[in-house]
Amino acid sequence: MRWLALALALLPPVLLPLPAMAVESIVAGLSQNRVSITADFDGSEILVYGAVKRNAPAPEGPIEVIITVEGPSTPVTIRKKDRRAGIWINTEAVEVDAAPSFYAVATTGPLRQVLSETEDLRHRITLPRVIRAVGAATEDGGPDDFIDAMQRIRQAESRYMVLQGAVEFTEQTLFRSDIVLPANLTEGEYRVRIFLTREGRVVDAQDRVVGVRKEGLERLLFNLSREQPLIYGLLSLVMAAGAGWAASAGFAVLRR
Fold first, then answer.
1. How many domains does the chain have?
2. What's residue 131's pLDDT?
3. Could you tell me if 188 and 222 lie in one domain?
4. The predicted structure's pLDDT at residue 238
5. Is 140 a member of any domain?
6. 26 three-state secondary structure
7. Is 3 helix (H, G, I), strand (E, B) or coil?
8. pTM of the shown model
9. Helices and strands per DSSP (H, E), number in the chain
10. Could you please report the per-residue DSSP string of 170-199?
11. Is residue 176 a contact partner of residue 167, using CB atoms and an 8 Å limit?
């Protein structure tokens, strides 16, 4: 055995087995990796672009691209209101362990065709896989009903987006997609994922990060509210009183 090990060690490198390499891989980039939230911030846009790199002839069959942009996740309590004795009150609730503050998924085609259920479960790409609910006990309707309601509300607010067919793919090599970020962004790191799929199976993936931060006056007020809440509250009262006085004085001038 020792002679065999020595003989293998002396073999030329070309005779040793080579590690398997991916036939197709992603080379991608972003138009920006930082978004600044200022007093006049009304949204932004991220261009995700790239190409498919191959070290061998492309396999048969169509190739697809999926792009996701995910904001910071936080716990959410979803409540249901019922009318009791003429008053609307909260009756049932579902605790969501983690729900992204923003989520967009863009694809080259319909999600059911470009991604299998198994790969979706493994990589958590679609919205139902990203949101995780716990402690969901309701009288009528399961937790899925509550989560669907939250998705509808956040989709109406442009915080959740499913953009099927929004990824442009040229000659199965170059791709690009524009992801619009709304004005009501949450500060934090936004994870951008790019997936390459064939026959619903993920063959390569790549991650990028976009930092979203408050700047200028927005940053000053945010830090003040966290570090000096008493001063922030007093300053808010003074500003509200000043605005009320200015409005009253303006109406008094107009009456004259």
1. 2
2. 85
3. no
4. 78
5. yes
6. strand
7. helix
8. 0.73
9. 7, 13
10. ETTTEEEEEEEEPSSPPSEEEEEEEEEEET
11. yes
Residue 86 lies in a domain: no
Say if CB 151 and CB 98 are below 8 A apart: no
Q: Going residue by residue through the chain (256 aa), what tens digit of pLDDT does each one get?
A: 555 444 544 455 444 443 444 578 999 999 999 998 887 788 899 999 999 998 888 777 789 999 999 999 988 888 877 777 778 777 778 888 889 999 999 999 999 999 999 999 999 999 888 887 655 445 555 677 888 888 999 999 999 999 999 999 998 899 999 999 998 888 899 999 999 999 999 999 999 999 998 776 555 565 656 666 777 677 777 778 877 887 777 777 777 7
Report how far residue 246's alpha carbon sits from residue 256's, in angstroms, rounded to the nearest whole number: 16
- Is the domain of 112 the same as that of 203? yes
Q: How does DSSP assign 91-135, residue by residue?
A: EEEEEEEEEESSEEEEESS-HHHHS-HHHHHHHT-SHHHH-EEES
With 0-12 CB in 10 A as exposed, 13-18 as middle and 19+ as buried, what is 177? buried
What value does the mean pLDDT of the chain take?
A: 81
Contacts of 83 (CB under 8 A, 6+ apart): none
CA dihedral 30, 36, 39, 43 (to 10 degrees): 20
